[in-house]
Amino acid sequence: MSEQSHKQSDRTLFPLPPTIPDINQWPLNILSLEKESFLQEVIESTKAAVLENIDSPIAMYNMLASVLYQERIRITQTPWKADPPDEKDFWNSVRSELLKAQKESRYDNPTYDYKRDPLLHKILERYANEIVGHFNPKVFKFAQKFLPFIFSRLLNSRPGHFIKSFWSKKAAFHEKFKITGDIEILRKLSLEGTIVIVPTHFSNLDSPVIGWAVESCGLPAVIYGAGLNLLSVQPVTYLINNLGAYKLDRRKKNDIYLELLKVYSQIALQRGTHSLFFPGGTRSRSGAMENRLKLGLLSTAIEAQQHNVKSKGKKIFIVPVVLNYNFVLEAPSLINQHLKQVGKEKFVVDNFEYSTTYKLLKFLYKFFTANTDLTVSFGTPMDIIGNNVNERGESINHLGEKVEIEDYFKTNGILMNNAQRNFEYTKILGEKIVKSYFKFNTVLTSHIVPFTAFQILKKKYPNLDLYGILRLPMEDTQIEFGEFAIALEKVRTKYWKCATKEK
Q: Are 358 and 352 contacting, i.e. CB atoms less than 8 angstroms apart?
């Protein structure tokens, strides 16, 4: 790694020139152009994976009946505005066909060729076309101009001068939008192989923030998942549908849907498409960084690498990223969710943050006129086992020795599939990503100041738990400035010692 690793990059360089100047040659655009063959591969590969767990016609029936039951519950109990208008019609047709097959005793016949079941294919085709994303170079170029304009105006606004600063020239944008890490290595690796960006997750702004950071570094656009619930607002829907995002419906928990999502991610990686997914799953409710990752999508990088080793495809590089905000727009509601989940009856919401339109607008005004910063910290790139990689994409183990990635997939010198082994690799990779999060985290003033204040209150009221402190009257939470300044200096000194020791 260079001596400049994880120091802030020269602000005068941004945006860096693209590593692939022709947007039509970006892997994401090529994947979009090959959508039909890509979807067919996803459907057939998912079908094969599903059939591995089906050993009889009746087992096929039970699985289809379970999927139908879960989907009918979803439609009736948790409908969304973004749901396709023909949802009920589709699943009613599935129900009719399943009832017809049952009357014909199709699944009771041990000779029935359940591996060619038309209902399974019909459901997979429905899910695949619902999930698939599209990339439009023209819309992307528009977003290239639009998002920086919005971000720069918001980050450069000042209290009481929002309108004026919104239309003024963007002053030193990257003084507030900070990007750290060895960007040159990332740029080289994006040409050597396939990059998987795995960020922390705190806000709905995370995806556009990462997208703008990737663009600033001159990297090709990445594929990413977006919640289907975000498609209820037309401008957002238009962007999501044209910037390569695939749609995720977190209400769907059936095995067919979850398997198709994993296969979708895996085959996109196998085709060399740079990807982004949040291994923590949903946004952090507590504000703490993820220390336990969901391994589902993360495992697709392992499986894709194994496939690429056999097919002589590209190497896959994992890039942890830590996002830091002074303020998270939806923090009040996220915190309330966390406190309610953890505290249950102990937590009582006196007055919800957005109980009136006026309060919502007031909060948005405060957020947009605050002197806020954004920090995107790219961690050290690693291979799918967690070994660091150099600018040539070579894996270097903890002893400083070069290792070959294909050796991790061999048994007695022969390439072999081993699900248990790959699961262990996924757990190791998850642990390495978490360590990277804590190593390259950036502590902002908005983090350290409230932390210090809360520690003072805990010490002042040792007999109260968190919820007791939250219920204290305002006059009992006041802290003398001198006491606070002394405590803050102690916290800063301790943090600096820990940070220096880590380096």
A: no
Using the 8-state DSSP alphabet, how is residue 409 labeled?
Answer: G
Structural tokens at position 402: 């070069």
Using DSSP bridges, classify how beta strands 402-403 and 245-248 pair: parallel, antiparallel or unpaired. Answer: unpaired
Enumerate the β-bridge partners of residue 9: none
The confidence score (pLDDT) of residue 338 equals 77
Is there a contact between 38 and 29 (Cβ–Cβ < 8 Å)?
A: no
Structure tokens at 286: 């507590």
Sign (positive or negative) of CA dihedral 222, 294, 503, 496: positive
3-state secondary structure of 435: helix
Domain residue ranges of the chain, discontinuous segments joined by +: 8-327+374-440, 328-369, 445-502
Tens digit of each residue's pLDDT (9 = 90 or more) over 260-297: 999 999 999 999 999 998 988 777 777 777 777 877 88
Identify the bridge partners of residue 321 per DSSP, sorted by sequence position. 199, 378
Amino acid at 152: S
Cα-to-chain-centroid distance, residue 72: 28
The pair of three-digit structure tokens given for residue 155, joined into one six-digit string: 């980050």
CA 167 – CA 26 distance, rounded (Å): 33
Measured distance CA(18)–CA(218) in Å, rounded? 4
Q: Which of 320, 341, 376, 453 is nearest to 203 (CA)?
A: 376
Contacts of 53 (CB under 8 A, 6+ apart): 255
Check if the beta carbon of residue 319 is closer than 8 Å to that of residue 301: no
Phi/psi for 300 (5° steps) reads -65, -30
DSSP structure class, residue 345: G
Give the model's pLDDT for residue 297: 83
CA separation for the pair 68, 62 (Å, rounded)? 10
How confident is the model over 152-189, as pLDDT tens digits?
A: 655 554 444 444 444 444 445 556 678 999 999 999 99
Residue 3: other Cβ atoms inside 10 A: 6
Between these two residues, 369 and 119, which has the higher pLDDT value?
119
Is the alpha carbon torsion for 288, 291, 297, 300 positive or negative? positive
**pTM passes above 0.70:** yes
* Residue 405 · residue 307 · CB < 8 Å: no
Q: How far apart are CA 69 and CA 54, in angstroms?
A: 18
> Would strands 410-411 and 414-415 be described as parallel, antiparallel, or unpaired?
antiparallel
